[in-house]
Amino acid sequence: MKNHDPIRYLKNQFDFKSDFLFSELSKEEVNRIRSSFEPIRFKKGSKLFYEDGIPTGVFLIESGLTKKFKTVMGGNEQIFYIYTNGDLLGYHALLSNERYQDTCEAIEETKANFISKENFLKLLDNIPVLKENLLRNLAHEFGVLANTIGILAQKTQNVRLALFLLIVEERYRKYDHLKGGIRLSRFDLANLIGATRESLGRSLKEFKEKGLISIESKAIRITNYERLFAILKREGSNQMWLNEQNLRR
Amino acid sequence: MKNHDPIRYLKNQFDFKSDFLFSELSKEEVNRIRSSFEPIRFKKGSKLFYEDGIPTGVFLIESGLTKKFKTVMGGNEQIFYIYTNGDLLGYHALLSNERYQDTCEAIEETKANFISKENFLKLLDNIPVLKENLLRNLAHEFGVLANTIGILAQKTQNVRLALFLLIVEERYRKYDHLKGGIRLSRFDLANLIGATRESLGRSLKEFKEKGLISIESKAIRITNYERLFAILKREGSNQMWLNEQNLRR
DNA sequence: CTAAAAATGTAATAAATGTTACATTTGTAT
DNA sequence: ATACAAATGTAACATTTATTACATTTTTAG
C-alpha cells in the first residue's frame, strides 16, 4: 500500500515533515521547549522575517499559513514552500550563521510561538535528540528542494500546476481541514509554479473546463483526482503513478 | 569589496562550500577522520550511488567531477549540483534515514575517499565540531537550492545559461584550474539549466556569435565576463550586479 | 586503424508561455 | 453603503522554447 498511494508519495517527496522534529522527546524535554515559547501573532500580509535580515530566532506555527519566498533578481518572487500548523521555520539562517536567505510572509492570520536564537541554541545543546531530529529534517528538506527543482525545471506549466494543486491541497488540509478549499491568490499560485499570473489563469480555466477543479470566486477545489493525476502521468512514467485506486480522498 | 564582487556573490549563493566541513578541527580529529578513509576510484560514467539505493556511507572527493541529479518523472534527468575536489557527498540520505533521493555519477575520472555509514556516524558522535559544521552546511545548502529554484523557475533560458556558465566555470577552476575550459557535455549542460539539448545549442551559438564565449570542440570558455553578466543584469536588478569593475578573472 | 555508436550542430515548424491591454469582480476603508 | 483600490478573467499577439529531422563531428570498441 505504501508505495501505491500517490498522495503519500507526494507527501514524502514534497513535504518537509517538520512536525516530526519534536518526536521522541521526553515529556520533560517538551516542557523545556514550551517554556521558551513567546506567543506572537501575524496578520495577513505581515512578515515573520525578511531576506537579508539578521536572524533572531525560530518560529513554531500554531495555526496559520505562511509563504516562504526568494526575491529573484528582476523583482519577481519565487515561493518555494508553504508552511502551516506545526511547522518550524527560521532555523536555516540561524544555523548557517548567515542572514535570512528568504522572506516569510503570513498569507493567512498566523499564530506562532517564537523561540529566541539564544534559547533555541541552548535547547539544541541540551536536548541531543532535538539536534538529531533537526539534522535529519535538514537532510530530508534537501531532497524536497531537489524534487522541486526537477519539477520546475523540466515540467510544463500544466503538470506543475496539477502537482502543486495536489501538494497545496494537503497543506490546506492541515491548515483548516480544507474547509474553504485552496484560497491562494492567483499571484501566489503563479509564483509557486513559476508562471505568470495570466498564463496560470489559462491553465486554471482549462482545468476547470475539463472538470478537474472547481472555482468559486477565489477558492479552488479539486473535483477529480484521477484525472488530475492523469496529467502528471501523461508526461511522467514513474512507479509512483501506477495505481489510481486509492487516490480518492 | 565583499558585496561588490559578483563572482563572490555567486559563490555564496550557489556553492555548497562543503570543503568548509573540516574547518576548525584539531589535528588529531582530522587524523581520526583520515583513518576511516577507504580510497575508491570511479571511471567516467560510473555511479557513486543510485536513486532509491540504500545508503552505505559518504564520499569525500579528492579529485574529479561528479554530477548529482534526479530522474524526473518522464525520464529526463535534472542536475542540481556538480561536485568536485574537496566536496563531501552522500550524507543526506544517510542522515535522513531515507534511501538515496538522487543519483551521483562521475563525469570525469574521480578519486574519492569513502567513509562507511558506521564510521561516519561514529565520527559525528565523537567530534562535536564536525556535527556542528555539518548542521551549518546543511542549513547553507538549503539556501543554495532555494536560489536554484528561483533561477530555474523564473529566468529565461539565456539568463539561466549565463548564470550556470559562471557557476560551472568556478567549479572547473577548482577541479583543474580551468585548464581545458568547461567540458560539460551538451546533454549535461542542458539538464543543468533545464532546457533541451537543441535549445541549449541555439543559446550557445548566440553567445558565441556575440563574443561572450568561445567554443573549441567541446570546451567552452568565457571570453567576456562583463557582457555575460550584462545578460543577468538586463533581467535582474539586484544590488549584486552593481559594480562591474572586479569581475575580470 | 577502422567501423559503429554517440554526441553535436543546425534549421524548420509546432507548441507553450509571456506580454500587453482592458473588462470585471472582489475586497477595503471611510 | 459607497467609492476606490486591488485582484482576477480574458483575449490577441509576440516571443521563447520544444520537437522533429537530419548532417556532421567526435568518441569508443574491436
For the terminal residues of chain A, how far apart are their CA atoms?
15 Å
| Backbone shape of chain A | globular
The number of distinct β-strands of chain A equals 8
Query: Helicity range of the residues of chain A?
Result: 40-55%
The helix/strand order of chain A is HHEEEEEHEHHHHHEEH
Structural class of chain A: alpha+beta
Oligomer: homodimer
Could you list the spans of chain A in which at least 5 consecutive residues all have pLDDT below 50? 236-249
Quick check: average pLDDT of chain A? 91
**Count of alpha/pi helices of chain A:** 9
Overall description:
2 copies of one chain form a homodimer. Chain A contains 9 helices and 8 strands. Chain A has helices at 6-14, 27-34, 91-96, 117-126, 128-154, 157-176, 186-193, 197-209, 225-235; strands at residues 38-42, 47-49, 57-71, 77-84, 88-89, 103-116, 213-216, 219-222. The model of chain A is unreliable at 236-249 (pLDDT under 50).
Tags for this entry?
homodimer, about 250 residues, alpha+beta, two-stranded antiparallel sheet, about 20% strand, disordered C terminus, DNA-binding
Helix-strand layout with pairing:
The structure is a homodimer of 249-residue chains.
Chain A lengths: L5 H9 L12 H8 L3 E5 L4 E3 L7 E15 L5 E8 L3 E2 L1 H6 L6 E14 H10 L1 H27 L2 H20 L9 H8 L3 H13 L3 E4 L2 E4 L2 H11 L14
Antiparallel strand pairs in A: 1-6, 2-6, 3-4, 3-5, 3-6, 7-8
Chain A binds a DNA duplex (30 and 30 nucleotides) through α8.
Structure, briefly:
2 copies of one chain form a homodimer. By secondary structure, chain A is an alpha+beta fold.
